[in-house]
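Trying the structure run again after the queue cleared.
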Amino acid sequence: MFDILMNKLQNSTYITLETTPAHSPTFAPIIEKIEALGLQNYVDAFTTTDNPLAKLKYNSLFAAKMLQDKFNKPVIATMSMRDRNKIALQSDLLGSNEVDIRAILALTGDPATISDQPHAKGVFEADSTLLLDIIASFNSGLSYAGKPFVHKPKYIYPFAVVNSYAKNPKTLQKKMQKKIRHGAKGIISQPLYSLENAKKLLDIHASANKESQKYNKHSELIFGIFPITKLRTAQFLSAHVPGINVPNSWIEALRVANKKGEEEEYKVGFELSKNLFDSLKEYHPKIHLMTANQFKLAHDILK
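Done. Tokens:
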């Protein structure tokens, strides 16, 4: 299952769909929505998020297990450094390994100060590269402390994330190189909103891979896409989310459409997003689609 996914990432069209578990003790409703729309037929894999924005959600690893069992497709489970120390990280990886949750997206995580849980404290023993190092140790049959396991874990496939935009390309390249050196096989970008930005990012990634050859390391770049169908979303991403560049042309088009009503606003935003998806897929068909569980929107983008 995972070998096929990685072969697609390296040699073919590769599309993953993000799912965000709810503030609920059940993940089944999300699976039901995906199945009703037949989304499993449009993607190569799913991902599950891990308490994004430090808001309490259903566990990403359990969600990944349910998705994987239901659709017989690989799931990349996110693990955040915010909520676990070295012991918990390794314990979760061991348990997940036996039930075949073996693709892990290493994330540093949003600060606990914005959590919906009172007085929550972040762990943050290190950034996401620590988890990548732990995974490398597991793939060698060792714990992070260097102690051999009684049984060697099944191979774990590490993924990482990177900003999609930076005023200084060298800064972005160094961040990519760091994650490649620590073993990331796939690097998912934050949302992109122009083919020009995508081309620049792919050039930066190529340079990062070239610099990482001395360490015998290599990764694949995956374009992140988050469709925008509302003006307020475009304005928020542009003004408040570092590492994302929403073109002024998108904001202006949505502003004009907004004055004509919600239906026109959605229509214009969808058209911009769909055209972007199609152009990126044609240029570099390795895409991670994020829709904040708006699965009908995901379906319309993918079909």
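The CA atoms of residues 27 and 66 lie 8 Å apart. Worth checking whether this holds up in the mutant runs.
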